[in-house]
Amino acid sequence: MRIAQIAPLAESCPPALYGGTERVVSYITEELVDQGHEVTLFASGDSITAAELDACSDRALRLSPHVIDALPHNMVMLEKVARRAHEFDALHFHIDLMHAPVVRSFAHRTVTTLHGRLDLPDLRPFYAAFPNLPLVSISHSQRLPMPPVNWIGNVYHGLPRDLLSFQSASQSGGYLAFLGRISPEKRPDRAIEIAARAGLPLKIAAKIDRVDRAYWDDCIAPLVRAHPNVEYVGEIGEHQKASFLGAARALLFPIDWEEPFGLVMIEAMACGTPVIAFGRGSVPEVIDDGVTGFIVHTVDEAVGALEKIGGLDRAAVRKRFETRFTVERMVRDYVDIYAGFTAEPMTQAFVATDRPAPEQLAL
């Protein structure tokens, strides 16, 4: 098939450091190429891919000191995609919602994977206005806040099988790991409390966005300074994840929001590292309680779970990753969706539902 992958421009594909969506887009793109498809990746110019790269910005926008407003760069990308749309059997968007008005004439050959949270009130009128846009969720729980829309599939994320190496219990260390982003909904403060009460060291590897700088300065940094068992190691890249996660006794995932997926959970599982996760959002769909980790609801339960973590078989954690969360499975699911695309445009007009009727316009 001739397939276009349209990535966010905030990070390169794959990202140099943090960037969950761009990382997933890169995995999909490279696996599609490996399977023999003809793939074009619309992404930032510093992306690295075996596909054809159509560069839509010189470099990742987050890392560019010259970018003040990302919108013009994204508009350039959409113009490029629209001009080349006729070249593709399938166009796979990963940029949330900004392309919806642009793809009306070829929406029957598109799919949009929604990577973020869908419980924001501003999203409901948008998706109510574009009910025919073909959408894919990354967990069933992600769908719950949405009005009726055109769900055409649910595809859990996957990782390359050999991306992160398995480490047995004898190779793992005694520390707990927190990996991701410093933000109130990720609750690094909970991770610090859990580690302190369990009497275990905690290593925090996370990026700090500008919008979360005050949260770090006012809330988390003082806690790190107050607890000698806690080490902030900063933002880490892909090549550092295997050792960081693999050497951990467990990954703490103490979220306080409806997590759409949580890529770090399956990254830990790939290393054989069990996960202690609060049961919000996708967590019950990703974690097999008592096999790949423990699902908890309070700090007390998390501390109690740490007492049982040594009883889990790290080889079984890795085996469950190989069964459920590889890139081969993810791309197989997406190719099945692409294969179901219609050859002709939708019979129902792909327009906003509140558009006035012609007779109303005549008035």
Quick overview:
This protein is of the alpha/beta class and 363 residues long. It has helices at residues 20-34, 71-84, 123-129, 188-198, 213-226, 238-246, 263-270, 283-286, 299-308, 314-324, 327-339, 358-362; strands at 2-6, 38-43, 52-55, 90-93, 110-113, 134-137, 150-154, 176-181, 202-207, 230-232, 250-253, 275-278, 293-296.
Describe this structure in words.
- It is built from twelve helices and 13 strands.
- The protein has 363 residues and is α/β, with parallel strands linked by helices.
- The chain folds into two domains: 2-158 and 329-339, Glycogen Phosphorylase B (Rossmann fold, 3-Layer(aba) Sandwich); 169-324, Glycogen Phosphorylase B (Rossmann fold, 3-Layer(aba) Sandwich), CATH 3.40.50.2000.
- α4 (188-198) crosses α9.
- The model is unreliable at 347-363 (pLDDT under 50).
Secondary structure elements and their pairing?
Blueprint: E1 2-6, H1 20-34, E2 38-43, E3 52-55, H2 71-84, E4 90-93, E5 110-113, H3 123-129, E6 134-137, E7 150-154, E8 176-181, H4 188-198, E9 202-207, H5 213-226, E10 230-232, H6 238-246, E11 250-253, H7 263-270, E12 275-278, H8 283-286, E13 293-296, H9 299-308, H10 314-324, H11 327-339, H12 358-362
Parallel strand pairs: 1-2, 1-4, 2-3, 4-5, 5-6, 6-7, 8-9, 8-11, 9-10, 11-12, 12-13
Number of strands: 13
Oligomer: single chain
Q: For the record, what CATH class of the largest domain applies?
A: Alpha Beta
- The shape, in one word, is globular
State the major sheet. Answer: 7 strands, parallel
The number of domains is 2
* Tally of individual helices: 12
Strand order of the largest sheet: 3-2-1-4-5-6-7
Question: At the fourth CATH level, what is the homologous superfamily of the largest domain?
Answer: Glycogen Phosphorylase B
Structural class: alpha/beta
- The second-level CATH architecture of the largest domain is 3-Layer(aba) Sandwich
Radius of gyration (CA) equals 21 Å
SSE sequence, one letter per element: EHEEHEEHEEEHEHEHEHEHEHHHH
Give the termini separation.
Answer: 47 Å
